[in-house]
Amino acid sequence: RPAVEVLSADKVFANGTRGLAPLSLTVEQGDFLSLIGPSGCGKSTLLSLMANLQQPTDGRVLWWRGGFDGVGGDGRRLSFVFQDATLMPWARIDANVRLPLDLAGVPRAAASARVAEALALVGLSSHARHHPRQLSGGMKMRASIARALVTEPDMLLMDEPFGALDEITRNRLDADLAALWWRRRFTTVFVTHSIYEAVFLSTRIVVMAANPGRIVREIAIPEPQPRG
Ligand code: ADP
Ligand code: ADP
Hints:
This protein has helices at residues 43-50, 93-103, 108-121, 137-149, 167-184, 195-201; strands at residues 2-12, 18-28, 32-36, 58-63, 78-82, 155-159, 187-192, 204-209, 214-220. By secondary structure, it is of the alpha/beta class. The strands form two sheets. A six-stranded mixed beta sheet has the order 5-6-7-3-8-9, with helices on both faces. Helix 5 (167-184) links the parallel strand 6 and strand 7. The structure holds adenosine-5'-diphosphate (2 copies).
């Protein structure tokens, strides 16, 4: 069943720039969907429509919540990971990861258990008590992923999350994200410039082009068959 449906949605900005031509796209539950294309083709704009951070100029975006109710982005159902990990520098890693649970009023003991689980998922258990400045760029990104997953979101939205990392770190995070997704199957929309990342990670790739931003191709990646 669908997680989010974009229906003939377009985007014209206040200055008259057309960011997106009208387009339709359905993200299915459990998809790992990558948006790929050149700079300025509307990847971030399309992601922000799916995140309810911006409204389409025309058309609609619908979120599935046991039935379409047209409401999204309440911060619990959708989680974000951006290129800059945006951790609170004064707070320990465990406190950073716990922030969305604190904001949601989850009781301390339950929150701590979920934080521990999220940190284990991304391989950061041993750094729970560290501060962000004591972590490498890749580790900070892992913490950011843990913070996004700790609320068990319906959908994870990632905008070039590994774009600022060196290639070795990036490849390692790609591999770990793939393994994590295979275990958990959280619905993911992933913006990237990298064809390698898109092919490596995705169940579906949506290829976009610019002037105006639009979808030019959708590619389904068949699931590998279990061996033995
Ligand atoms: P991408 O993420 O693929 O690089 P964007 O979605 O950021 O592309 O941008 C799509 C197009 O919309 C580009 O031409 C960009 O310059 C333009 N654009 C994006 N945001 C705004 C804005 N707030 N106001 C005006 N134009 C914008
Ligand atoms: P990205 O999509 O890679 O995250 P940005 O959000 O910085 O990159 O912007 C993408 C493009 O949109 C850039 O070309 C930028 O100049 C353009 N853009 C962003 N905000 C505006 C704006 N308010 N007005 C015009 N162009 C914008």
